[in-house]
Amino acid sequence: MNALTVPFGVSSRARSLPLLDGKGFTVARSQGARLFDTEGRSFVDYGMAMGATLIGHAHPAVVEACKTALENGPMPGFPNDIEELAGKALARIGGARVTRATFATTGTEAVHLACRIARATTGRRLIAKAVGGYDGWFDPVRFGLVESAEAERTNIRPVKEDTTLFRVNEIDDIDQLFDEMGADLAAILVEPMLGNTGCLVPERAFFEHLTRRAQENGTQIIADEVMVGLRRGVRLVSEELGLMPDLVTLGKAIGSGVPVAAVLGTPKAFEVVENGTVPCFGTYHGNPLVASAVLATMKLLEDESHYTRLFDWGAALRRAAVEAFAAEGITAITTGFDSVFSLWFTDRMPRSYDEAKTKVRPEATKRVSDTLRRHGVVSLPSPWGRYFISLAHGDSEMEQTVLAFRAAARDLAASGFKG
Ligand SMILES: Cc1ncc(COP(=O)(O)O)c(C=O)c1O
């Protein structure tokens, strides 16, 4: 047995790709929309650091800003002159309503802090998160994940470590949650798009009802935008979809690959931070290195034409992928947004986690991912996985990916898969 020092050779199992044709996959360099492995092969990337590199790997503006921060000292350990600038720039996402910001290092920590803020504000303990939602790897919220036992439908609502679950797009379930547990309910924690359940976008009527019940009950809403933040523009995805959050967690794309996350909040939600009731700590939080990465990213995204191009490119890829399978007699659809989407072998977007579970096709997804990889295109092999698009994906990547999808569709049809 090969005893690696780092178990599996990677500190987050979500990042490892299976062997393919006897070969592993280890990245030596990432640039723009491409990965270069240790054997010198180049791949078009749709993992894009699990969504963290929206503007492309190693974007020169971010590299330059970080170089300067490193040279000036990345960790002064006292207030620095970039953090407030970065906070202001980031808070543009929150618009006129969600105007406060504080930094963390990971999305997991941002969720933890947002829950702490909601508990301090409401004086209640219980957090309700969505079945199938992923909100980080800390124990209380690592609960009700896709394919977990707790996510199964039963008559008893599961509770673990002051956390319970609700089911997206089920208004009756929300009513029952508030009727039975409202007095204890500090916060609703929900992704505006269930990225980890194959990019399911909840319905507006559901989000509006959820907002109404939460507001009537004095329960805070935490929109977990760690994955979708900045993927629809410099604004809140939650608000666009009918959910009115008090607190918003961000991560990934805000740092363009540099480890940084944040909590945004309304002035009211941040009162407990500003009056010192909720302590915010963290050696690395808001240091000049990460603040510089945020500032450079936000500056770049001031130019809205980037988004027009990104959405056109993503829409074209979604169409091309679906057409490639249709040409082989296989029905496929995509769910999500033009900057991040999932591929399903079905004719209609699942409405719920239960429905999604009946529609995932693990063997087909894995087979497609393998063929794409043989044609120089890396995707996430999980049936619940996503394709992340970046500003760096261009004509050559489109051409290569479309050819790879056609090959994948031919291979899938040849295997006898009917869709
Ligand atoms: C919606 C969501 N929330 C929270 C997290 C946790 O972020 P991190 O991995 O930076 O701790 C993730 C990570 O994938 C996520 O997708």
Q: Tell me the strand percentage band.
A: 15-25%
N-to-C order of helices and strands: EEEHHEHEEEHEHEHEEHHHEEHHEEH
Classify the fold: give the CATH topology of the largest domain.
Aspartate Aminotransferase, domain 2
Summing up helix and strand content along with how strands pair, one would put the structural category as alpha/beta
Strand order of the main beta sheet, please?
A: 4-11-10-9-8-5-7-6
The total domain count is: 2
Protein name: Glutamate-1-semialdehyde 2,1-aminomutase
Keywords: Pyridoxal phosphate
GO molecular function, one term: pyridoxal phosphate binding
InterPro entries: Aminotrans_3, Aminotrans_3_PPA_site, PyrdxlP-dep_Trfase, PyrdxlP-dep_Trfase_major, PyrdxlP-dep_Trfase_small
